[in-house]
Amino acid sequence: MTEIFNFAFGPYPQRVNIYLAEKQPEGVAVTVYAEPDRRANTPPPEIRALTPTGSLPILRDADGTLVGQSLAILDYIEDIIPEPNMRGNTPAERAKVRQYVHMLDEALTFFGLWARHGSALGQGVVRSSREVAEICADRYFGKLRLIERLMSEEPFIAGEYVTLADCVAMATLQYAKDFYDVPIPPECVKLQMWFDSFSQRPSAKQPPYPEKQWRKAMGLMGQTGVCF
Ligand SMILES: N[C@@H](CCC(=O)N[C@@H](CS)C(=O)NCC(=O)O)C(=O)O
């Protein structure tokens, strides 16, 4: 049995949640914790101990193989359960999917830094810098504009069918919009159309966000004084 331990929300956990809902792999048992809560002991210490940083998602296979990092987990499941293929059928298709996944990963890194440095939720977590927040906001939107330029009129991010790129894109853009109230830049028309359409899929159902955190996160653009 392949086991996955994950959180119910957050951009990295949500990549895996969306992927599992799309792929529906057989023989994978998923345990989802609402949020990290030391007082409630979730995730339990033995699960935290599986990973050096204690962060989720994490995968444990029947032979004891441990895989951390959301993107490595998606790749591992694609390797052990190849169908339906969500990574591309040819070298060119796979390269295209990877290209988008890497760009989205970069976008999320910038978004995370922006949120840390620019929101009330990040206060006290890092020594915050308004300048870092502004630079990272600009880089985040820049990545989305780059993705927009590369996208075609096809129904999914990388082409005719759902791939890892859609799961990673949805997790990022949904988190930005629903948790921090940061929309897609208005000129990213194809990306917005894709987002509106993919949002209708059951896999993209909004995850439950803890209200206390959400209140501090909302309105990130206003909190930082950033506009398009
Ligand atoms: N790069 C990692 C990031 C994982 C990560 O940051 N997980 C966060 C949730 S979004 C976490 O587990 N935080 C709780 C903790 O570290 O206690 C991945 O892609 O899996």
Describe the fold and architecture:
The N and C termini lie far apart (47 Å). The protein folds into two domains: 2-80, 3-Layer(aba) Sandwich (Glutaredoxin); 91-224, Glutathione S-transferase Yfyf (Class Pi), Chain A, domain 2. The chain has 228 residues and is α+β, with helices and mostly antiparallel strands. Helix content is 51%, strand content 8%. The protein has helices at residues 11-23, 45-48, 70-80, 91-118, 130-150, 164-180, 189-198, 211-217, 220-224; strands at residues 2-7, 28-33, 58-60, 66-68. Bound molecules: glutathione. Glutathione binds next to helix 1 and helix 3.
Secondary-structure topology with pairs:
Elements: E1 2-7, H1 11-23, E2 28-33, H2 45-48, E3 58-60, E4 66-68, H3 70-80, H4 91-118, H5 130-150, H6 164-180, H7 189-198, H8 211-217, H9 220-224
Parallel strand pairs: 1-2
Antiparallel strand pairs: 1-3, 3-4
Helix pairs in contact: 1-3, 1-6, 4-5, 4-6
This protein binds glutathione.
Secondary-structure element sequence? EHEHEEHHHHHHH
Low-confidence stretches at least 5 residues in length (pLDDT < 50)?
A: none
- Total strands: the figure is 4
Bound molecules: glutathione
Number of helices: 9
Largest sheet: 4 strands, mixed
The rounded distance between the terminal residues' Cα atoms is: 47 Å
| Structural class estimated from helices and strands | alpha+beta
CATH class of the largest domain reads Mainly Alpha
Helical content (DSSP H or I, runs of 4+) = 40-55%
Q: Please tell me the total number of domains.
A: 2
CATH fold topology of the largest domain: Glutathione S-transferase Yfyf (Class Pi), Chain A, domain 2
Could you tell me the mean pLDDT? 96
Which band does the percent of strand residues land in? 5-15%
Write down the Rg: 18 Å
Q: Which strand order do you get reading across the main beta sheet?
A: 2-1-3-4
Shape descriptor reads globular
Named CATH architecture of the largest domain: Up-down Bundle
